[in-house]
Design brief:
The chain has 109 residues and is of the alpha+beta class. 33% of the residues lie in helices and 10% in strands. The protein has one domain (14-106). The structure holds zinc ion (ZN).
């Protein structure tokens, strides 16, 4: 039987995954060269709040934006880490994952 390289590729542990896909990873992905105001393109800003819910306020035009503004996750009430963990669990389950099992794993309904 031929050696299946895909089957034996190095996977990602849950701690590695959560470290790679946290709020800082989203910030790095959205603004790779640092914050840029979507309205006036200024880099001068202050940060209000914490984690994924934090707001970035531009010093130039006072526009406020967040890490998830304008994205698919804009109106979610769940933390981004919960969504990322759901994606991880769904993608790692070889035989699929039921909605009830996902609910139990994440503690959400
Ligand atoms: Zn601005």
């Amino acid at each position: 039987m031929a050696f299946n390289q895909i089957q034996f590729q190095h996977g990602m542990s849950i701690p590695e995954f959560l470290q790679s896909f946290g709020a800082e990873a989203v910030k790095q992905s959205r603004w790779p060269d640092g914050f840029r105001c979507p309205r006036c393109d200024s880099a001068n800003h202050c940060v209000l709040g914490e984690d994924a819910r934090r707001l970035f306020q531009c010093y130039g035009c006072r526009h406020q934006t967040s890490l998830i503004a304008g994205s698919l996750m804009e109106h979610t009430k769940l933390p981004l880490t919960t969504w990322f963990l759901a994606v991880y669990l769904i993608s790692q389950a070889k035989t699929g994952l039921s909605a009830l099992a996902l609910k139990r794993h994440l503690g959400v309904s």
